[in-house]
Amino acid sequence: LYTYFQGEPTWPQRDLTYAFTDVSAVPIDRSVLGTVFGRAFARWAAATPLTFKEVAADAGADITIGFFKGDHGDGEPFDGVLGTLAHAFSPTNGRFHLDAAENWVAEGDVRDSNSRDAVDLESVAVHEIGHLLGMGHSSAADAVMFPTISAGSRRVDLASDDVEGVQRLY
Ligand code: TQI
Ligand code: ZN
Ligand code: ZN
């Protein structure tokens, strides 16, 4: 079963914007990033009345996406390869940070995708967008909001548990 953050915070508006603000630390093509995150946001948009639109980094987006290494100023330092992969804050903070030290792979990207420390970017994006929208962790093993994922695996389709949870919020 799905959970929410304490106090069930949600976004007051239905149309949300997102921007890539700190992407220089990750060796993924900017257009690949746009495609992967576009797909990840579309999965949540398909289940809700919400819309997501990418805007420029200086446009004051609701959601900001950046890659950082180690201590990056919010009291939740990243830890290098594996361990913590990313974190996102509850509504309406909008900050979504990814650990630049991970071996991020995008679907169709042959680079190192077979190595043991490869992390599928879209899987992590779909999970963190759930947090950005107000979803906590789920006890349903097939949910994208389940708090663990097997190494090297891909989990990008919302389960009925995720859909029911987010539909109660929006
Ligand atoms: N990051 C944790 C996560 O997003 C951070 C976290 C721990 C957290 N407890 C939280 C965030 C409570 C919000 C509320 O869950 S992580 C996975 C998964 C992580 C883990 O790097 O461990 C995914 C990021 F589910 F696969 F284990 C993305 Cl998909
Ligand atoms: Zn952070
Ligand atoms: Zn989580």
How would you explain this protein's 3D organization?
The protein has 170 residues and is an alpha/beta fold. It has a single domain (15-163), classed as Collagenase (Catalytic Domain) (3-Layer(aba) Sandwich). It has helices spanning 30-45, 121-133, 160-169, and strands at 15-22, 51-54, 63-68, 86-88, 95-99, 103-105, 118-120. The strands form 2 sheets. The chain has a 5-stranded mixed beta sheet, covered by helices on one side. Strand 4 and strand 5 form a beta hairpin. Helix 1 packs across helix 2. The radius of gyration is 15 Å and the shape is globular. Bound molecules: ligand TQI and zinc ion (ZN) (2 copies). The site of one zinc ion has 4 residues, from helix 2. The site of ligand TQI has 13 residues, from strand 4 and helix 2.
Query: What is the general shape?
Result: globular
For the report, how would you describe the main beta sheet? 5 strands, mixed
Continuous helix count: 3
**Average pLDDT, all residues:** 94
Counted up, domains total: 1
Strand content: 15-25%
Q: From the alpha carbons, calculate the radius of gyration and give it in angstroms.
A: 15 Å
